Amino acid sequence: MKRSDRLYSLIEILKDGAQHRAEDLALKLGVSMRTIYRDMDTLAASGVPVEGERGIGYSARAAITLPPLNLTEIELEALHLGLAAVGNGLDGELRDAAQSLSAKIDAVLPEDRHGAPKSFGFAVYPFADAAEGFRHLTTLRAAIRGRQKLRLAMQDGTTREVRPLKLDYWGRVWTCLVWCDTTGDFANLRADQITQATVLPGLFVDEPGKRLEDYRKALE
Questions:
Q1: Residue 77 above 80 pLDDT?
Q2: For 116, how many CA atoms within 13 A lie in the half-sphere containing its CB?
Q3: Structural domains in the chain?
Q4: What is the pLDDT of residue 124?
Q5: Which of 13, 17, 107, 152 is deepest in the core (most CB within 10 A)?
């Protein structure tokens, strides 16, 4: 049984409010008692209200239990960045709730997942950077689809006029591949380092040497 499935099974067992011995849980799930102890620590750390201790038994009284959800990679990214924006941009109960939810998601993510961050948990860096860049993603996506030039003001004080070509996600940091009319070359710009994105009038057209396929060919 996968770790994520086992953790969910434990929640299903414990939420009846009765006490369950680690020995019985281990036998039911086909794992060692040491694994059950580790799983209990994981559930408690992720915010599940587990009650009890080793040698006595465990129970849990969760207010809300959701059924299993299958998320696509882009859905996970959206959830990830949304929590980052809330957790790093607000104080008080909403920030605490975002951090708690992040820990719960991290506890049940598959151990062998690909493409997702190694840990979903919060950190000062680079989570704060991802949240900062999040506000520009709508503008960047729309410009890529609409073939719209942008004027980008960067944190280093420079200003670039660019043709946005592609967005990439690198585990909490977004980059935008552009053809930069200012420097006359391709550039990968971090979204969190953009301070302002202004849509310019007029659309750009494909020109040899300035297209996404030209960038890819140059990498071969």
A1: no
A2: 22
A3: 3-60 (1.10.10.10), 73-132 (no CATH), 135-219 (2.30.30.100)
A4: 39
A5: 152
